[in-house]
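Lecture notes, unit on binding sites. The following record was shown on slide 14. It pairs a sequence with nickel (II) ion.
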Amino acid sequence: MPELTHQPTVSLSSAQIAFFRSNGFLSVPQLSNPAEIAMMREAYDDIFQRRAGREVGDQFDLAGTDEEGKEAALPQILGPEKYAPQLWDTIARINALHICRQLLGDDVQAQGSHAIFKPARHGATTPWHQDEAYWGPDFQYRSMSVWLPLQDVDEENGCMQFIPGTHKQEILPHQSIGNDPRIHGLELAPDAAIDVSHAVVCPLEAGGATFHPSRTLHFTAANESERPRRALIMMFGAPAIKRSDLGLPPRRFPWTEHKQTARAQRHEAGTKS
Ligand code: NI
């Protein structure tokens, strides 16, 4: 990854750090500035409009079966900075990195990002899940997802919601959305029966962000508003460690073993050619 050249302008207070440690998420009012957010919004809209990365499987529908010609319910781009390099070296990212180091340790590095777009009036729900459920089961992670909206967000257009304290849980059973292995996105399996009555809704102004580690349960509602909802998710982490090296028991994520997504087929075809 190219170097980040800005200086951080935001630091957490000890009260914010204590809140994160006990709740497993944190909302930070501002990581950037209006000019940078406007620049990022323009680049973001451009890569979705030109369907950047579609043919190699970097752009796909997170919540649908993703056939050619079908409108995506929840369009996602992996590594948007590959298609819009100006999204990489931002004040938002250096601030997020600085905060992640305060929360997880100085060995944390910026690891890339993805973009999840909810079109106006029909962007789908992102169901309750833990991010670690998408990853390899053989590793132990010290990682953070930083969710940066590029316009104001509230419950109506799909801001983040968290269940406090769930960062201390193991990975719960997941399945493909609707139990359809053609769909990339994951949701909690019905037998994971969780209590969402304590969910905390995190509205933000454009350029604010939420921080959550790999096991915190989170959700965003469908976009019921008249405006598109753009979110850039920046990833940060220390190198993952093999669980066997730490004496931890092996685990399996069966929900990742049976995927048959159109995205993976395009990715295969793209890497062979
Ligand atoms: Ni997530």
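Take-home: Residues 129, 131, 218 surround nickel (II) ion (CB under 6 Å).
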